[in-house]
Amino acid sequence: MEKLKRYFIKIKNFKITRRIIIEILLALSLTIISSLLYFNQVAISFYLHGFQSLKSGVQLYSIYVGQGDSSFIILPNKISILVDTGLEDYAEKFCNELGFLMKSNGIQQIDYLFLTHPDSDHIGGALEVFENFEVENIYRPIINIPSEAKENGYKVSEDGLYVKVIEEAEKEGKVSYILPQEIEVGESVIKIYSPLSSYYSEDNNYSPVMTVSGENFSFMFTGDLETVGENEFLDQYKDEKFDVDVLKVAHHGSKNSTSEEFLELIKPEIALISAGVDNVYNFPNEQLSSRLQESGVKKIYSTSELGTIGISQKGETFIMASGFIFQEKSLFIVIYFVLLFSIFSVRESRDLKKKKFYSKQYV
Which of 52, 125, 280, 355 is deepest in the core (most CB within 10 A)? Predict the structure, then answer.
């Protein structure tokens, strides 16, 4: 009771001093600045790392999704193409980055979504994409879910995530199988070269070899393609002329694909590798990196070193920007409260020092 009485006496005798006003203003300023940073982390990070300089011509982004894969292409006529959606654990961060890229380019929807194969590190963010964005056209692997088992004789997967993704895809937009074909998108073309067989024991080989190309640019995507699928592609298209500017390297830089013969055929100038920081597989593999260099690839970029990577075309020149996107909310909140506490603790520490000083004077 006595403690409560002393507390109310303190409140009654409380005076607003200039120091207290300054502390309140500092706290308010910290709160406002922290809120702006908290809700605009993606935009600020993109600005800081030079992504605004990419906004000309065609744009290609390899978005950092840990040990997963996702590419986003913006064509000059603002048609948008998304190839894979990364890991489920990165879905929220991934959609934040994707949303910023779309908004800053005036894009309202994803025109084409390609889900290359059922692995969770490639389709893990698909449900979040369906929830947050309108998707016009969806291309899926020639792997059925149990409810489709009798439709066309394709291999059936009972993987829980894959089943959910395909079921939601059917609700979301127009769904087609990934098969060899050409898709005209404005003045550009999406060309799908494979898969060339209807059945593979390894799901990775269902990954298509596909290009997105237009005036002065050609990007190639290969999902998690392995040796079997790659050899089929080489046999079928060994006489075709390729002039690939940017190759999205297969299987996160594994040594089991992207052979010398494959590189000799497509002749890429730039190689993009999507891999997680300090991943347990040590991707990109050193043998693969050596093959890329020896084949004449001029520049090799990996998300494991650079984070999200953006490439854009100015005339016939390609420019690049990169930057990690840190959105660890719990850490951000802890830092905010530490700073807030420090503002008010300065006065208390000063008052304590004064008390100790005066007490020594009279001892």
Answer: 125
Are both 191 and 272 inside the same structural domain? Answer: yes
Supply the range of the domain harboring residue 352: 22-50+328-363
One domain for residues 318 and 347 = no
Q: 284 preceded by cis ω (within 30°)?
A: yes
Q: How far apart are CA 192 and CA 158, in angstroms?
A: 26
Residue-wise pLDDT for 120-152, tens only, equals: 999 999 999 999 999 999 999 999 999 998 778
Q: What is the spatial distance between Cα 279 and Cα 328, in angstroms, rounded to a whole number?
A: 19
**β-pairing verdict for 174-177 and 217-221:** unpaired
Residues 217 and 339 in one domain: no
The model's pLDDT over 258-313, given as tens digits with 9 standing for 90+, comes to: 999 999 999 999 999 999 999 999 999 999 999 999 999 999 999 999 999 999 98
b or e along 103-118 (b: 16 or more beta carbons within 10 Å of the residue's beta carbon)? ebeebeebbbbbbbbb
- On whether residue 297 sits in a domain, the answer given is yes
Q: With DSSP H G I counted as helix, E B as strand and the rest as coil, what are the percentages for the chain, rounded to 5?
A: 45, 20, 35
Q: CA separation (Å) from 205 to 16, 141, 356?
A: 71, 10, 75
Number of domains in the chain: 2
